[in-house]
Design brief:
This protein is an alpha/beta fold. It has helices at 11-19, 35-43, 58-63, 82-87, 100-115, 118-126, 155-168, 181-187, 194-200, 220-224, 243-251, 291-309, and strands at 2-5, 23-26, 47-50, 69-72, 92-93, 147-151, 171-175, 190-191, 203-206, 231-234, 257-260, 280-282. β4, α4 and β5 form a beta-alpha-beta unit.
């Protein structure tokens, strides 16, 4: 069995594959492969370790039904057409838990940065705009005792809620497919319907897996139901929000600010008008970008691949 790895991964994962004697090839080109090149290479391999944004859609599975398994270098699996994998009995594995802290750290960082306009003020200094003290300028908001609303309270959402409770004594409300007993017990989190989440959150942070039914769920009409002081945080997927509507909400005092680690498309274009706003902080999808998280992801992905070779169930399988 031969494995194709689409981009280099941290050594911890490579060492594990080597230790198990697995035959793998890492994409030797610096460039992102074209769709045709990618499919052709997958047809010549038995398993795929997918790093990055290749779209594993219905057509991909039709053309690459030879694959015996796919290990993703991500926790999100929205890039994979799971019904196609299921119908061909191709297991798909992800990298849960190991990036929950790092990703929730970025959500927390964005929340604070927006609340205190930190990125914007850094930009002002760089532009030579640090003037004399002004008691009325650059005012942010404090988060003590405010309400954090979490859309999708799983592992990452839990970590975010925990930090916000510990740092600012925030009240936690959440909307999820099901109740999260741990969060209710440990953090006194309250399950609410979606409308309540919108209307009561001072900070609304998305931590859900992305599914098509949630495409642009955060749009003109949902932003309009949020508080004027609300901060919108998205570290999950850019497809959750409508970018034009977010721009409108941020420039018409509908909501107070936004922090994004994800956009649609990625990379975001340099002339995107959101980048010019004083109340919007944007990061280039770095939620899991710590040594600790990326090493953990490399090990999870290698464990998923190893299981295939040992004819075992993937330890982090999303579709079986
Ligand atoms: C994930 O793991 O899903 C992160 O968003 C990186 O893609």
């Amino acid at each position: 069995m031969k494995v194709f790895i689409t981009k280099d991964i941290p050594e911890a994962g490579i060492l594990l594959l080597q230790k198990k004697g697995i035959d793998f090839t890492i994409n030797p080109t610096e460039n992102v492969l074209s769709r045709e090149e990618f499919i052709k290479i997958c047809q010549e391999h038995d398993a795929l370790l997918n790093v990055g944004t290749n779209n594993l859609d219905e057509d991909f599975f039709k053309q690459c039904s030879n694959l015996k398994g796919i290990a993703l270098f991500s926790v999100g699996f929205d890039s994979v057409h799971i019904p196609s994998a299921n119908s061909r009995k191709i297991p798909v594995g992800n990298t849960p838990d190991v990036l929950s802290r790092a990703t929730s750290d970025v959500a927390f960082l964005l929340m604070q940065s927006v609340a205190r306009k930190s990125f914007y003020n850094h930009k002002r200094i760089m532009n030579g705009e640090w003037g004399s003290f002004d008691a009325l300028a650059n005012l942010g908001q404090e988060l003590y005792g405010k309400t954090l609303g979490i859309f999708g309270l799983g592992r990452i959402g839990f970590e975010m809620a925990q930090k916000c409770k510990a740092a600012f004594g925030m009240n936690i409300i959440y909307h999820n497919r099901s109740h999260n007993q741990d969060a209710e017990k440990e953090l006194d989190a309250k399950f609410v319907d979606f409308e309540t989440l919108l209307s009561e959150s001072d900070v609304l942070s998305i931590h859900s897996n992305y599914a098509e039914e949630n495409n642009k769920l955060f749009n003109k009409s949902t932003f309009a139901k949020m508080k004027p002081n609300a901060i919108f945080i998205n570290t999950a997927r850019g497809k959750f929000h409508n970018e034009d509507d977010l721009f409108y909400a941020l420039t018409n005092d509908i909501i107070w600010g936004a922090g994004l680690d994800v956009t649609n498309p990625e990379p975001m274009k340099q002339d995107n008008p959101l980048l010019a706003l004083s109340n919007c902080c944007i990061l280039p999808h770095i939620g899991s970008a710590t040594y600790e998280a990326r090493n953990g992801m490399a090990v999870c992905a290698a464990q998923n691949i190893t299981a295939l070779f040992e004819d075992k169930k993937m330890p982090f399988c999303v579709n079986e």
